[in-house]
Every structure is written in structure tokens, then in C-alpha cells.
Specification:
Elements: H1 13-42, E1 48-52, H2 57-68, E2 72-77, H3 80-94, E3 101-105, H4 111-125, E4 130-133, H5 149-177, E5 181-186, H6 200-219, E6 224-230, H7 237-240, H8 245-254, H9 258-275, E7 281-283, H10 287-295, H11 297-300, H12 316-319, H13 322-374
Parallel strand pairs: 1-2, 1-4, 2-3, 4-5, 5-6, 6-7
Helix pairs in contact: 1-13, 2-3, 2-9, 4-5, 5-6
């Protein structure tokens, strides 16, 4: 087995291939680390975020976390007074100025209202990086036959039409601004097509959103990401709407407070946005976490509701005291320190990988030189 120079590589094929493989594998690993490093660097960039249904519950908690990360938010709600109250609350809780916490009233079931929301958000922030369709309604806990038509209409118009309107407006704005953006649509019970008894309308809307997301990921341009955001069971008015005492006792096991869930989701939402991907499923209540909750049910029982189904937890204002705010600032500082340490570790890994690449190249050249000297 000879090349054009007459060198016989037969006896050197295995070490040559091993050296080349070593060089290639370390080169690929280095490229992967470079990609991670660039993404980590982008996480320091301030983002502009629109959140529908952002004045309470998980929407407000998400806004709080984005603000703590240095981002700007634009809140939307049907009630203009609720928007102003949420802005003041978030400013007090995060120490950010009202110029970083914008908002407007919007009925997401009205397409023109959502168009106006998008225009106002773009005027106020310049560009939009992330749009979260969080506004939702669950309806009363009743069988489909016992549910009134108005309740069904409200659930479908808010959850499904509202998400469609928000997604369409967001994707249009992303295309116009030229640098793309990312829309996150909320899933919920029924997203996987499983039955949701006594919440049939709600489950139907979530299943439809899953199908819509799959279709839009095929339609969206390269710079537009369409993702799923799954908070799981969050202790909000939406979850408690129409619930019974028995429901509420069960909530102790799988539920979490909005701020707990948001602190887990927001860093992952930001990462998905800076990574520039599409189709991410950012999920809090994973199978592993749910199994952990169930195994420790005896420790979680009675956390939020007593045996009669009566509330035992503190209000948002009581939970987010100045002491808690100071604790959150400390956690933010620790997160920044962890990011800097991660960058340092990435640089070290890159240096090691490139060293190994050069060693691999050296071994390949040495094998060729050895073959040439022998033959």
C-alpha cells in the first residue's frame, strides 16, 4: 500500500489513523467549547422581553427574574391599573427603575389589541428579543356538559386565539427588525393529548398549541425561534380557579410558588434565546422532578393547604420582603461569579484541547516522517 512518493503506509496505517482520529476528536471538542463560550458571553447582553399576562402569578414572577438578570420587560394585561401596580411592585422588589419596566393594557383575544401591544413595545424598547405568551384562563372545574358556553369561549379565546395572535405579531416583528427573536408559548395539562377531565376546554387549547408550535417551527425563518415553556403546576389564581378542597390538598405535592419556578426557567429561556435555536422545551416539572416530589410526598404534604383545603401560605408581599430581596441580590451576585468561573474553566479547557490537537498533529507528522525514513 503506497502513496505517490512510494511510501508504504501499510505497517503504519493503524497508528496513523489513531493519531488522525485523536487530532480530529479534540478539534471537534474544541469547536464545541468555543460555541459554549460564545453563548455564555452573550448571556451578559441585556434583553428586551414582552410578557402577556405579566401582572400576576407566573408571568409576574418571570418578569421579576428577567429584571434581576438585567433585562427590560414589557407587561401586558387586560387591566391597565393592574399593569401600573405590577410595575411599581416589581420596581420595589428588584430595585430597577420604571424605565426598565414598561407595560400596556391588552386583550389578547383581540388581534388589533395585540398588534398595538407589539408596536408599543417596540417603540418603548427599540427591539424585542423574547416574547412570552403567558396570558391564560382555565375555566371552572366542571364537566364539559355542565360548563357554560361563556366560560368555554373565554378559555378558547384567551388560551388559543390569544397565543396565536401573540405568536403572529411577535414573528412579524422579529422579521421586520431583521435580527430575529424568540417566542415562547405556554403549555399545560393536555399538551400531550392526554385527557383532562373537568378541564376539557383548557386541555384542548393546550393540545392545539403543541400542534401549532410544531407547524410554526417548520415555517419560521432561521433567526426566529418558536419554543415551548412549561412551568408545571404553579400556585397561581389560574390553577386555583374552580378548584375544590380535594384538589387543593393534592396541590401540596406537585405545586411550587411562582418565584421558585421562574428562577429555574428564566436562565434557560435566556440561554435558548442567545443560543439561537428553535424548538426548545423549557420544562420545570420534568419526570425526574415529579417522581422526586411523589417519593417525598410526606415532607411536602400541607405546605400550602391544610387537610380542609384552606390556605396556609404567605402572600407574595410577605414572601418577597426586603430581607428576601437582599437574599435574591446575593444569589444574583453568586450567579454572576459562577458565570465568570465558568468562563475561566472554558478557557482552560480550550487551552488543553488545542494542546491535544497539536499533539495529535505532531503524532501524524511523526508517523509520516517515520514511514518515509524507513522506506
Amino acid at each position: 500500500m503506497c502513496d505517490m512518493t512510494g511510501v508504504d503506509f501499510y505497517n503504519h496505517l493503524v497508528p496513523f489513523a489513531a493519531s488522525a482520529g485523536l487530532c480530529l476528536s479534540f478539534s471537534l471538542a474544541a469547536q464545541y467549547e468555543i460555541g459554549r463560550f460564545r453563548t455564555t458571553q452573550k448571556l451578559n447582553r441585556r434583553m428586551n422581553v414582552v410578557i402577556t399576562g405579566g401582572t400576576k402569578g407566573i408571568g409576574k414572577a418571570l418578569a421579576r427574574e428577567f429584571l434581576s438578570s438585567g433585562d427590560r420587560v414589557f407587561l401586558a394585561s387586560r387591566d391597565s391599573e393592574a399593569v401600573e401596580l405590577a410595575r411599581k411592585d416589581l420596581a420595589a422588589q428588584t430595585g430597577r427603575g420604571l424605565d426598565s419596566i414598561l407595560g400596556a393594557s391588552c386583550d389578547v383575544s383581540d388581534y388589533e389589541d395585540v398588534v398595538n401591544l407589539g408596536d408599543e413595545a417596540q417603540r418603548g424598547m427599540g427591539r424585542i428579543d423574547i416574547w412570552i405568551n403567558n396570558a391564560g384562563a382555565s375555566g371552572s372545574f366542571k364537566s364539559f356538559l355542565d360548563s357554560d358556553a361563556e366560560s368555554i369561549r373565554r378559555v378558547v379565546h384567551t388560551n388559543l386565539l390569544g397565543t396565536m395572535h401573540g405568536t403572529k405579531v411577535a414573528m412579524s416583528l422579529f422579521r421586520k427588525q431583521g435580527q430575529g427573536g424568540h417566542v415562547f408559548n405556554m403549555d399545560g395539562a393536555g399538551y400531550d393529548g392526554n385527557a383532562t377531565p373537568n378541564y376539557a376546554a383548557y386541555g384542548a387549547t393546550k393540545a392545539a398549541i403543541t400542534q401549532m408550535n410544531r407547524s410554526l417551527r417548520k415555517e419560521a425563518s432561521a433567526r426566529v425561534g418558536v419554543h415551548t415553556l412549561s412551568p408545571g403546576m404553579v400556585l397561581t389564581d389560574l390553577l386555583l380557579e374552580g378548584s375544590t378542597a380535594e384538589n387543593r390538598k393534592a396541590f401540596n405535592i406537585l405545586c411550587e410558588m411562582p418565584e421558585t419556578v421562574a428562577s429555574n426557567l428564566v436562565p434557560r429561556v435566556r440561554y435558548a434565546a442567545v443560543k439561537g435555536s428553535s424548538g426548545d422545551q423549557v420544562r420545570y416539572l420534568t419526570l425526574r422532578r415529579a417522581l422526586g416530589f411523589l417519593v417525598n410526598w410526606h415532607k411536602r404534604n400541607g405546605r400550602f393547604f391544610d387537610r380542609s383545603g384552606d390556605r396556609t401560605y404567605s402572600s407574595e408581599k410577605e414572601r418577597l420582603t426586603p430581607a428576601r430581596s437582599a437574599e435574591r441580590e446575593l444569589m444574583t451576585a453568586l450567579t454572576a461569579l459562577q458565570q465568570r468561573n465558568q468562563i475561566a474553566k472554558t478557557v482552560d479547557r480550550l487551552a488543553n484541547l488545542y494542546s491535544m490537537c497539536f499533539i495529535g498533529i505532531y503524532l501524524v507528522l511523526a508517523e509520516i516522517a517515520t514511514a518515509q525514513s524507513i522506506y
